[in-house]
From TrEMBL, chain A:
SUPFAM superfamilies: CO dehydrogenase flavoprotein C-terminal domain-like, FAD-binding/transporter-associated domain-like
Protein name, as recorded: Carbon-monoxide dehydrogenase medium subunit
InterPro entries associated with the record: CO_DH_flav_C (IPR005107), CO_DH_flav_C_dom_sf (IPR036683), Diverse_Substr_Oxidored (IPR051312), FAD-bd_PCMH (IPR016166), FAD-bd_PCMH-like_sf (IPR036318), FAD-bd_PCMH_sub1 (IPR016167), FAD-bd_PCMH_sub2 (IPR016169), Mopterin_DH_FAD-bd (IPR002346)
Positions of the FAD-binding PCMH-type domain: 1-167
Pfam families the record matches: FAD_binding_5
Keyword Flavoprotein tagged: yes
Lineage: Bacteria, Pseudomonadati, Pseudomonadota, Alphaproteobacteria, Rhodobacterales
Molecular function terms from GO: FAD binding; oxidoreductase activity
Domain of life according to the entry: Bacteria
UniProt entry keywords in alphabetical sequence: FAD, Flavoprotein, Oxidoreductase
Organism: Meinhardsimonia xiamenensis
Keyword Mitochondrion: no
From TrEMBL, chain B:
SUPFAM superfamilies membership: CO dehydrogenase molybdoprotein N-domain-like, Molybdenum cofactor-binding domain
Domain Aldehyde oxidase/xanthine dehydrogenase a/b hammerhead stretches: 21-139
Origin species: Meinhardsimonia xiamenensis
Keyword Oxidoreductase among record annotations: yes
InterPro entries: Ald_Oxase/Xan_DH_a/b (IPR000674), Ald_Oxase/Xan_DH_a/b_sf (IPR036856), Ald_Oxase/xanthine_DH-like (IPR016208), AldOxase/xan_DH_MoCoBD1 (IPR008274), AldOxase/xan_DH_MoCoBD2 (IPR046867), AldOxase/xan_DH_Mopterin-bd_sf (IPR037165)
SMART domains noted in UniProt: Ald_Xan_dh_C (SM01008)
Signal peptide positions on this chain: none
Protein name: Carbon-monoxide dehydrogenase large subunit
């Protein structure tokens, strides 16, 4: 690691002030950032830890919306969201291993926007709202390609608001080494239609599979997807799978997610 | 009643008390006063001309003591290779120089270009980033076939080409084998890859060099399976330090699997730099450095042909293998694809004619050397895969075709030099059928089918050769080392025993099993016996631990030394009891005059040896301490039969291992629980190779699997509960304990079982076009095979 200063504010206001320093960077669970620092791939001047800020933590229900503080760990979401939004809780409970889940946070995961991460699929398929210190960003506008989001310099996520669907399911097919999603599909059914978000597969990051949404909105059954094929053209190709394989998995996992969501 | 003491008792591992409570003392736990730290600058290109290294900015960086480059090592020896293979034309292998720090050229990603020594590790790394190598990149040689093309770039400019050797075995059989295959009623051919693996010991490598200018003595603390070998190689061949001025200490070692046998550049560097700087110099590998600097394993590309008659009797085997050696010859690299591989091609079968051809190739990749099993997994995999394929082609049951060809009479002279002293392959196969519940397979298959999954069963046998020996034979085969083992048994005045062994545990549990043997021989409690290992200053010259040799060779040396001690103690007891030594027996910790009630306790005899007031000083020296060196008459031959059941998800290609059974014959067993554990670990590694692990370079020689994000290690969740058994026992006929060794069996025997099972599952589901899938059988590969 390179040398850096360390701040651990207890309020959002203090954190924002600390982040004004040049090359300051927020530190959430550190599950992505600390390995990056150890490999000397980043050199922040100040790390501003979000872990002591109570107002950024916790799971709260407001009517049909589930609000999750940005600094809430995956383990907490797995526990606290289970009664309200089981598919989301299950997704959180399937991230990494217990050590990762006890440190890693939803805000860190979304800000990082790893193309193989799980949360982006839930946020996009739920049509959630990403709340920052400055504004509210619709999921459809938040994710902007690999490791890229709508966040501005110094802007931090404070909360994520999930509309709770009637039925939902996340199917994750693990990359054998990292156990991140080789392909992950989140299907959410709302009164006004179905949303399907795919992670892990595309060179452009998490995306919505619109033709599947259309078919499933008409008829929420696995068979409704018959004849639909994902185009492999923009899929990721690496040592863990070809474009064709990933495109194929998108279909398989979407069908399985629909079947599971129907219960 | 299971025994709770001595040979055959499942005693808990005493070393685990410290390992499990954080009190192990590993090399990285050692910190010496005044210690400096080194950060290595490693090549980021696979192949290039090293025109120069600009170290000026690094030298000016805070805390830097000195920056070393290849120039500093110009008068220093290179890293030696410990085995010379002779090719099929009688010529010695091509043997390139192997500099400690790169000179003139870089030949693989990870090769050390410069070394920065500084007051702290972070300062060393800061400065290392300021070292600027001037490299003219050359096209990299990665693929072995391409490496052998006439116009291929040369890894070593001073060699004729990239071929280290073209080895034929047994060369005299070549034509007879060709003829047998030409005339055979049936020939089954299979082309396969034995995937390259990264060893991944849990403890990364560490080296600390120390030098005392007052005594001119050097000490190297290192993560090694064989400190004496390192002392000899580094002292005599690299740095020119006489052995009496050089001490090598390997304290607790956290796994090695072969990767810590070899003498590495970092060890020589730290020892050298400590002498130059007159300060201790420490290096602890980062995990990314392990991936690009620990010797890799396997990496063979093979074509095997099995000739059979119509009844399924094996007539001949012919193989052609390309073996990747990487950029340089690691310590024992040349022996792995040859003597540890070709000699195993008979397997458990009485194939009369065998010919093995191996072309060993230099490439711009990390050196490849012995890794758990070393050559024997490669032999077993190809043989057991081709037998399965042959059975399918002939419409025979895979178990029956094996049984039909089993060797049943011992000693058995194979056509590939080895003489199997003993074995009983039907016994392990019978046992396997029982413990794997093969009768229940069909019912389980139906249950899988109802879930939409394809169940398959894979069965195979294996044989391995452990405890490579004898020294005079391996010397003829090209070994530049002896392969005996040593032990000193020191009895203290109050009867406690310390065994100083040349073997060295890196996870095998020697501190538990070795005392069990001594306790059995003397009749004392294990708590009275202590094991000392891993330090050249207080153990006799020994060859260390690898090749499942510790108990078979090291244990035998200890038995020989203990026998000498007991013989002397018997004479002392005879004197004390005024009886003839022939009339005395040692039983339950007492010397007894046969047929009388005269007895004297072990401890009293030991005291007499060190307080020799009443003692036959004219005939016997005082004291009770003996050393023995044991050079075995032959290898040992553990063998067994394994069965694997998998479920394949045809939609995704994902393979799940539902059950795995292993029936092994290890001869006599000292501690059954530890043997179970060794088999479990080996199965984990073998299943890892079969399903998950694969080291991949791109065409430019960049390592694509350089971290756990891309290199898939087996996890507990990838493994089923294992059913293991070692009740079939044909004790080794030529070592005093009748033991054979068990450390590598699991890793050798399991990969073909897994692959056979997957192919079986696909065939049962009608995907009969799939005759083979190369390891690792990732979901993507299996899916591709089904749809390809
Ligand atoms: C072994 C392992 C396995 C994993 N497996 C999975 C998996 O299966 N699926 C999966 O989805 N993920 C997985 N992860 C990633 C894990 O979910 C991480 O927790 C996540 O990527 C980052 O969250 P974090 O809280 O640790 O963020 P950090 O590492 O602390 O930060 C990540 C980035 O986000 C920024 N940041 C953090 N919080 C905020 C905020 N509130 N506002 C703005 N920017 C912020 C940081 O500055 C940094 O750039 C795994 C990680 C590991 C180590």
């Amino acid at each position: 690691m390179y040398e850096f200063e360390f701040a651990r504010p207890t309020s959002l206001a203090e954190a924002l002030a600390a982040l004004k320093a040049e090359d300051a960077q927020p530190l959430a669970g550190g599950q992505t950032l600390i390995p990056t620092l150890k490999q000397r791939l980043a050199s922040p001047s100040v790390l501003v830890s979000l872990s002591a800020i109570e107002e950024l933590k916790g799971v709260r229900r407001e009517g049909d919306t589930l609000c999750i503080g940005a600094a809430t760990t995956h383990a907490e979401v797995a526990r606290e969201a289970a009664a309200h939004y089981p598919a989301l809780a299950a997704l959180a409970g399937g991230i990494g291993d217990p050590a990762v889940r006890n440190r890693g946070t939803i805000g860190g995961s979304l800000a990082n926007n790893d193309p193989a991460a799980c949360y982006p699929a839930a946020v996009l398929a739920s049509g959630a709202t990403v709340v920052t210190n400055a504004r509210e960003i619709a999921a459809d506008d938040f994710f902007q390609g690999l490791f890229t989001t709508a966040l501005e310099e110094g802007e931090i996520i404070t909360e994520v608001r999930f509309p709770i669907p009637q039925a939902a399911n996340y199917q994750k097919f693990e990359q054998p080494a990292s156990l991140f999603a080789l392909v992950g599909v989140f299907v959410a059914r709302f009164a006004d239609g179905v949303r399907v978000a795919v992670t892990g597969a595309s060179e452009e990051g998490v995306y919505r599979w619109e033709s599947a949404e259309e078919a499933l909105s008409k008829e929420f059954r696995p068979d409704a997807l018959m004849g639909l094929r994902m185009n492999p053209a923009n899929m990721i190709h690496d040592i863990h799978g070809t474009k064709e394989y990933r495109a194929h998995l998108v279909g398989v996992l979407t069908r399985r997610a629909v079947a599971a969501a129907r219960g | 009643m299971p025994k709770d003491h001595g040979i055959g008792a499942s005693q808990k591992r005493r070393e685990d008390v410290r390992f499990l409570t954080g009190r192990g003392r590993y090399t990285d736990d050692i910190n010496l006063p005044g210690q400096a730290y080194v950060a290595f600058v490693r090549s980021q290109v696979a192949h290039g001309i090293l025109k120069g290294v600009d170290t000026s900015a690094a030298e000016a960086s805070p805390g830097v003591l000195r920056v070393f480059t290849g120039k500093d090592f110009e008068g220093v020896g290179g890293l030696p290779c410990g085995w010379q293979v002779t090719d099929r034309f009688g010529q010695p292998m091509q043997e390139p120089a192997h500099p400690v720090l790169a000179q003139g050229k870089v030949r693989h990603v990870g090769e050390i270009i410069a070394a920065v020594v500084a007051e702290t590790y972070e300062q060393a790394r800061d400065a290392a980033e300021k070292v600027v190598p001037d490299i003219e990149e050359l096209p990299a040689v990665v693929d072995m076939r391409a490496a052998l093309a006439d116009d291929a770039p040369k890894v070593h400019d001073d060699l004729k080409n990239n071929l280290c050797y073209d080895w034929g075995f047994v060369e005299e059989n070549r034509e007879a084998v060709d003829e047998a295959i030409r005339n055979a009623p049936h020939v089954t051919t299979l082309e396969l890859v034995n995937n390259r693996l990264v060893p991944n010991a849990m403890e990364p490598r560490v080296a600390i060099g120390d030098y005392n200018p007052g005594t001119d003595e050097s000490t190297l603390y290192t993560t090694s399976q064989n400190p004496h070998v390192i002392r000899l190689l580094m002292g005599a061949f690299v740095l020119g330090i006489p052995e009496h001025k050089l001490r090598v200490v390997a304290p607790d070692v956290g796994g090695g699997f072969g990767s810590k046998i070899f003498h590495y550049a970092e060890e020589a560097f730290c020892t050298f730099a400590a002498r130059q700087l007159k300060r201790p110099v420490k290096w602890t590998a980062q995990r990314w450095e392990s991936f690009m600097s620990d010797a890799h394993g396997r990496d063979h590309v093979t074509k095997i042909e099995l000739a059979l008659d119509k009844e399924g009797n094996f007539l001949a085997v012919r193989t052609e293998t390309l073996a990747n050696l990487g950029a340089y010859l690691s310590t024992f690299a040349p022996s792995v694809p040859t003597w540890l591989h070709g000699t195993l091609m008979a397997g458990n079968y009485k194939t009369p004619l065998i010919y093995v051809n191996v072309k060993a190739v230099f490439t711009n990749t990390v050196p490849v050397d012995a890794y758990r099993g070393a050559g024997r997994p490669e032999a077993t995999y190809q043989l057991e895969r081709v037998i399965d394929k042959a059975a399918r082609e002939l419409g025979m049951d895979p178990i029956e075709i094996r049984r039909k060809n089993f060797i049943t009479e011992f000693p058995y002279q194979t056509p590939v030099a080895l003489v199997y002293d003993t074995g009983n392959y039907h016994c392990t196969m019978d046992k396997l059928i029982e413990i794997a519940d093969l009768d229940g397979f069909e019912a389980r298959r139906k249950a899988s089918e109802e879930k939409g999954l394809l169940r398959g069963l894979g069965v195979n046998c294996y044989i391995e050769a452990c405890g490579i020996a004898p020294s005079n034979l391996v010397g003829q085969l090209g070994a530049r080392a002896g392969l005996y083992e040593s032990a000193t048994v020191r009895v203290n005045a109050t009867g406690g025993v310390v065994v100083m062994t040349g073997a060295h545990s890196h996870g095998q549990g020697h501190e538990t099993t070795f005392p069990q043997v001594i306790a059995e021989m003397i009749g004392i409690d294990e708590s009275m016996v202590e094991i000392v290992h891993g330090d050249t200053a207080n153990t006799p010259m020994g060859m260390g631990t690898y090749g499942s040799r510790s108990i078979a060779v090291g244990g035998a040396a200890m038995v020989r030394a203990a026998e000498k001690v007991i013989a002397k103690a018997t004479k002392i007891a005879a004197h004390l009891m005024e009886a003839a030594p022939e009339d005395i027996e040692l039983k339950g910790g007492e010397f007894i005059v046969k047929g009388t009630d005269k007895r004297i306790a072990w401890g009293d005899v030991c005291l007499a040896a060190y307080v020799p007031h009443n003692y036959p000083l004219e005939e016997l020296e005082p004291g009770l301490e003996e050393t023995a060196f044991y050079d075995p008459a032959n290898f040992t031959f553990p063998a067994g039969a394994y069965a694997c059941e998998v479920e394949v998800d045809p939609e995704t290609g994902k393979v799940t291992i539902d059950r795995f059974a292993a029936a092994d014959d290890f001869g006599n067993v000292i501690n059954p629980m530890i043997v179970d554990g060794q088999v479990h670990g080996g199965l984990g590694q073998g299943i890892g190779q079969a399903l998950l692990e694969g080291c991949v370079y791109d065409e430019n020689g960049q390592l694509l699997t350089g971290s756990y994000m891309d290199y898939a290690m087996p996890r507990a969740s990838n493994l089923p509960f294992f059913t293991v058994d070692h009740s079939c026992k044909t004790p080794c006929t030529h070592n005093p304990l009748g033991v054979k060794g068990c450390g590598e069996a699991g890793a050798i025997g399991s990969p073909p079982a897994v692959v056979n099972a997957v192919i079986d599952a696909l065939h049962r589901a009608g995907h009969t076009h799939v005759t083979h899938i190369d390891m690792p059988l990732t979901p993507a590969r299996v899916w591709q095979a089904i749809h390809g």
